[in-house]
Amino acid sequence: MVGWRGLLPWLALWALSTGSSGAYKVEKYSIAMPNVKPASEELYLCTPIKIDHQKSYFIVGFEPNATMHTAHHMLLFGCSSPGSKLPVWNCGEMSRATTGDMPSASPCGSGTQIIYAWALDAPKLELPDEVGFQVGQNSNIDYLVLQVHYHLSPEKGIVQRKKYNLKYINFHFVVGQPDSSGLLLHFTERPLTKLAGVYLLGTSGSIAPHATEHMETSCQIEEDKVIHPFAYRTHTHKLGKVVAGYKVSVDKNGINQWTLLGKRNPMTPQMFYPIENEVAIQKGDTLAARCTMVSDRDDYTKIGMTFNDEMCNFYLMYYVENGKPLSSKYCFTPGPPSYYWNLAGLNNIPDREASLL
After folding, report:
1. CB within 8 Å of 177: residues ≥ 6 apart
2. In the beta sheet, which residues pair with residue 293?
3. What is the average pLDDT across 92-97?
4. Whole-angstrom Cα distance, residue 152 to residue 308?
5. Catalytic residue at 237?
6. Which domains does the chain have, with CATH numbers?
7. Pick the catalytic residue: 172, 186, 214, 235?
């Protein structure tokens, strides 16, 4: 499937096994951290795979090989070019400094798209029959880049380290201990008729002290394509209580009709769950998401990369039949206090439903 054809000896990539799904053979390959040694409280590391661009491959499943006690989350990016040519680099997107002798760069140098995301000990994901992410030939994905976010629990580990000058032991990782967290990619070379994509909705903004805040985002689909959502995933850090995503269409009277795509408590395993309502989404429809955040903190909490920051993300996994996925991959808004659904002109908002489980 993939490989550097001997150009980079550090790449640990090999065929692990083969199987079958229906009428086609499915193989498994590993993308994993090459025994890295995390040594800071908040660290994002990336490692790449170059894909043989002479062939097309279709990823049909993702099998995590990681634990939440080591990794806060993992993301798999598809890239036209990687952010670095190094075997491993610091890819905390909001930090451009170096970590020791490790330079920083984004996960992708160009053509960034998210293919898969994992957190909180979520189990493996198998895509529906005939659905797959196309990589390699006839796609914009020449590289796969694995990002792992390592972190130490700020409630205990940092306090104990400062008080007793101890290493990070028995919390999330031990400084200097090798780690090879990663994924087994299930793939086939048989062409599939339904090409998968991921559309990510998120916000910027901040949460006031001791407040309940709605972080909201929405974007209209402008491409002349029909997408079929089949799975969703929610992601926040500690303050998230409910994350909900919707398809919004407009009836002949100009009234918004809201169809629930998915709603979860983001503190449950952050896996991709089956869509709540099977609907087609097309040009002119709007995708919208809300994260209900509840803060008991004495200070403002901003959107950011660290454990003490927050995130508001709703991932929508979909397929396009006999066509290419959306060119647009992301929908981000400024968030509170600058952006809310009603300020964006949406009406008939299901306020209670979107905020409660």
Report:
1. 37
2. 213, 240
3. 51
4. 11
5. yes
6. 15-188 (2.60.120.310), 199-355 (2.60.120.230)
7. 235
214 is catalytic: no
Q: How far apart are CA 117 and CA 74, in angstroms?
A: 6
What pLDDT digit, counting tens, does each position of 246-269 carry?
A: 999 999 999 999 999 999 999 888
Catalytic choice (134, 147, 160, 270) = 147
pLDDT (mean) for 140-153: 83
Q: Is 172 a catalytic residue?
A: no
Pick the closest to residue 328 from 287, 277, 291 (CA basis).
287
In whole angstroms, how far apart are CA 121 and each of 201, 238, 267?
22, 16, 11
* 310 within 8 A of 331, measured Cβ to Cβ: no
Catalytic residue, candidates 1, 73, 186, 293: 73
Q: Are 31 and 20 in contact (CB under 8 A)?
A: no
Q: How many CB atoms lie within 10 A of CB 91?
A: 27
**CA gap 99, 87 in Å, rounded:** 15
Which uninterrupted H or E stretch holds 160? helix 157-164
Determine contact, residues 59/125, Cβ cutoff 8 Å. Answer: no
pLDDT tens readout for residues 19-72? 444 567 899 999 888 877 777 667 888 999 999 888 999 999 999 876 556 666
